[in-house]
């Protein structure tokens, strides 16, 4: 630890947040590359099973599915948390309903090349959505629009922006940040930031 | 919603985290992009810092040249996007 | 003059705040004494680390503003910090930090965006806002080392109030062998200016900067949008891209 800077407290950190997080009211934009601009008519979402079977939705087909409006807390590994955010999206339960699989692992892919992995169980049972609306408005490209994965019980890097598909796997395959030091699972309440946490 | 912040800065800004690991200033080195083959001074890479780690991209083709993640007591380095790095060593 | 590549792993040093100088209503220069400082070159930067009592830390990068060429005190470090609204580190550095306080810094770092006073060719500096800080280090080095390289500065800033180093730049510009300084304003110009407030453009560049035929080295520093525009204009005017060095500043470092 460094020497204490007299009078420095940093951003507000409160006890009801996961350890090491501070509260923010705005919505910081994080990106590891240029923002992909994907028009809905070019967009599609594909679930690929461990046998190679593909389940694909165009934007029109995707938007015809029943939607949900979750209100969730976001926890970014860069230490900001944003509480009570309003989204609209299609539950992964809906998308996975007709998908036959015995896979235990999932790898999400995005336009622009980003990937992130999680156990398939973490995408089921009302815990994850493909979200296309934030705060009542179409999701802006900076925040992952047209659609992003939303897995709010894990650190926000797992909620892949500009999502284009999910590959179901019998073995775990680390994604973009998981292969460069970040935790494979990423539970904010257990402060699983880095390898070995 | 706040206004989006500038997307990238210059590779110069990675000098500190790289100098924690390397004995020379790597940002003044010239790397070859593994994707398009062009020569890039790492200081001139497009560096994305508003992210869990730093991501340096080729100014020509946008491919990832390097990634740096700084943990509390460790640094992870991914240099896969650089085919070769030329480091100038004057006076040696 | 210090070598760019000082061997050994970079570690944190504790400096002491010796003096504070208010530059504008929102910018302040920190004058630090850093024991064991290895020296720096014009254009380099440092990382500053703040630590809260519970161990929380925040790290940001700042350009070095002072020149160590022929300086009596080789352990002196000056940083000019522009306060960022709703920032975490800059409000502390510009409002709370006091003379006598310790401050942890790490550096100098960056060996690319530097100017050395033994370079004979003309120098074109282009600054947007607080991007003038590392260029000021170059101007101060130019003067301290009595460099003969012709130097020009084009400084674009919101309004006269926001201009850093205003008096020093005016004095330098008035001196016989000082740099040529052109200040332009994006929002409000002082009375009597012929140029209306606005962004830099090709006409301004043609009037106030070295032509490509003079073969200048160009250093451009400022917010990302400004640097893109200035660098594009320089290339369009015929400058070789390889002679243009840029430093976009913006969010960097992040909290750790």
Q: Distance between the terminal alpha carbons of chain B, to the nearest Å?
A: 53 Å
Poorly predicted segments of chain B: 1-5
Strand element count of chain B = 8
| SSE pattern of chain A | EEEHEEHEEEEEE
Helix residue percentage of chain B: under 10%
For the biggest β-sheet of chain B, the strand order reads 1-4-5-6-7
Describe the structure.
The complex is a heterotrimer of chains A (197), B (92) and C (256). With 197 residues, chain A is mostly beta strands. Chain A contains two helices and eleven strands. In chain A, strands 1, 4, 5, 8, 9 and 10 form a six-stranded mixed beta sheet that branches. Chain A has a five-stranded mixed beta sheet with strand order 3-2-11-6-7. The two termini of chain A are 18 Å apart. In chain B, the strands form two sheets. A five-stranded antiparallel beta sheet of chain B has the order 1-4-5-6-7, with no helix packed on it. A three-stranded antiparallel beta sheet of chain B has the order 3-2-8, with no helix packed on it. Chain B is built from one helix and eight strands; from the N terminus they run βαβββββββ. The N terminus of chain B is likely disordered. Chain B has one domain. The N terminus and C terminus of chain C are likely disordered. Chain C folds into two domains: 97 residues, Elongation Factor Tu (Ef-tu), domain 3 (Beta Barrel), CATH 2.40.30; 127 residues, Rossmann fold, CATH 3.40.50. In chain C, strands 4-3-6-1-2-5 form a six-stranded antiparallel beta sheet. In chain C, strands 9-8-7-10-11 form a five-stranded parallel beta sheet, sandwiched between helices. At the A-B interface, loops of A face strand 6 of B.
Give the structure's gist in a few sentences:
The complex is a heterotrimer of chains A (about 200), B (about 90) and C (about 260). Helices cover about 5% and strands about 30% of the residues of chain A. Chain A is built from two helices and eleven strands.
